[in-house]
Design a protein that fits this description.
Among the domains are: about 1-25 and about 120-200; about 355-475. The chain is about 65% helix and about 5% strand. The protein is built from 15 helices and five strands.
Length: about 475
């Protein structure tokens, strides 16, 4: 009996597969990709979607649109040919889209396109696979394996419409009903309880929205839609690009059919809007140039109030220009904020410098004698470092002056802000004394090992001297504005 049910199911599946080409003859045509004035479909295989706006407008999306952050990104065809359109990427605010209508249209367009292109091949592949499984059941001896194969085929039939826009779901439901009988009988043959699988609820395929798909826009409609998109997108660069594209498509203007036609009228509208965009671009470019030039001068003066005034001036000018370039103004204000922060830091550094000027001057006066003694022997220390001298007489002077420098610098009580570099300076003088002593010992003994020790001490002394002086200059000199 199970064999009979399998044979019947095979016949049903094969019959459905055979008549599939007849069924598809009544299918509606897929939405055309691009169409010119004649309305003929283009060669491109992309689907034309529609993005419906809350203000009642409609935009064309060549292929799928995408949600990115709080914007909807789509490609609009303007210019080119029907088979090779020139696409322009634009973005519109997500809040301006009528999503229920837009999503319903997109789902219907996808289903229609799928039905007219690859659906029948997919359906034929499904029926072949199910038929092949049923044939294998007939030649399989193990009851449990046969049952498993039949249940797998049934599951495949039930789930397929859910992922294929409900394509031919009724026919697949009929096939599933016949296959339920097969599974039921195979369960009995396998020693399991029999039950009616047809009573087991399966997840229905999501319904395709009943939406009338619009024909591909004509040449004129594509240009009108481009003009509407230029008014909707908040991105100035996209608006300018769309308007220039429309003007390029409508050029040259010396064609006989151009004068007094809708093309001339549309071109005048696009040219007027483009001129307005250029004026706004120039106004904001001038605003940025003037604001940054003024801010650079005020930053060097640490004029915090002046920079705050520049910020207020920019806001006032933006209001006068009706906020035509919000992204440009945001970038300009961010730059001014950086300059304002730098001016505040510079102002603080100048005020701090004014408080410690007398302290710094007193410190340099106290270290001047000792530092001069130290700097006077730098050349001799360099000779010691390079094992190039100096003479014995010069070595004695080197030792004496280095000792004086160490003593005089050690007597100075530095202010807290220069305590660290002053300590380095004293240590450098001590290393100079050691270098002179070791070099003199090397001269007396003729020991190269001792000479190398003196060289190391001289190198350390010179390095610490340079570091200390550089740090002291940095701390005790008047601060300069940041570049």
């Amino acid at each position: 009996m199970a064999q009979t049910a399998v044979a019947v199911a095979i016949v049903v599946v094969s019959t459905v597969s055979t008549v599939s080409t007849v069924s598809t003859a009544a299918l509606p045509a897929a939405p055309s990709s691009i169409s010119g004035d004649g309305g003929e479909p283009g060669a491109a295989d992309a689907v034309l979607y529609r993005v419906f706006l809350k203000d009642g407008g409609v935009l064309v999306s060549y292929g799928e649109f995408a949600n990115v952050a709080d914007k909807v990104v789509l490609s609009m065809p303007i210019g080119g040919t029907d088979s090779a359109p020139v696409l322009h990427l634009i973005s519109i605010p997500e809040k301006d889209v009528e999503w229920e209508q837009t999503n319903a249209y997109a789902q219907a367009a996808r289903a229609r396109h799928y039905a007219a292109t690859q659906a029948e091949n997919d359906f034929a592949r499904l029926t072949r696979e199910v038929s092949g499984t049923l044939y294998k059941i007939g030649s399989t001896a193990d009851p449990a394996t046969r049952l498993e194969m039949a249940e797998s085929a049934r599951k495949q039939l039930v789930e397929w419409p859910q992922y294929h826009y409900g394509y031919r779901a009724d026919e697949l439901g009929q096939m599933t009903t016949w296959l339920d009988q097969v599974v039921s009988e195979l369960r009995v043959a396998a020693g399991k309880s029999s039950f009616d699988l047809a009573l087991v609820a399966s997840t229905p395929a999501p319904p395709v929205p009943n939406v009338d798909l619009l024909p591909a826009p004509s040449f004129r409609e594509r240009l009108e839609l481009g003009l509407r998109a230029a008014r909707v997108t908040p991105e100035p660069a996209q608006r300018t690009a769309l308007l220039r594209a429309i003007l390029d498509v409508l050029a040259p203007t010396d064609r006989p059919e151009f004068k007094g036609s809708w093309m001339e009228e549309l071109r005048l509208r696009a040219a007027g809007e483009l001129a307005a965009e250029v004026r706004i671009d120039n106004a904001y470019a001038d605003l940025r140039t003037r604001a940054l030039a003024r801010a650079a001068v005020l930053q060097k003066r640490a004029d915090v109030r002046g920079l705050q005034g520049v910020v207020q001036w920019v806001l006032a000018q933006d209001a006068r220009l009706e906020g035509g370039r919000p992204a440009d103004v945001a970038a300009l204000l961010a730059t001014l904020d950086v300059k304002l922060d730098a001016a505040r830091r510079f102002r603080l550094a100048l005020d701090a410098w004014a408080l410690r000027t007398e302290i710094v001057k007193g410190y340099w006066a106290r270290v001047r004698f000792g530092l001069d003694q130290f700097l006077a022997v730098r050349e001799w220390l360099s000779d010691v470092r390079q094992l190039a001298g100096p003479s014995a007489g010069a070595l004695r002077q080197l030792a004496e002056r280095a000792a004086v420098a160490q003593r005089e610098l050690g007597k100075v009580q530095p202010p807290p802000e220069v305590a660290a570099p002053h300590s380095t300076l004293v240590a450098a003088a001590g290393m100079a004394v050691r270098a002179a002593t070791l070099r003199l010992a090397a001269v007396r003994s003729g020991s190269m090992d001792t000479a190398w020790e003196a060289s190391s001490a001289a190198a350390g002394s010179l390095l610490m001297l340079d570091q200390a002086i550089a740090e002291l200059r940095r701390i005790t000199h008047e601060p300069q504005p940041a570049r």
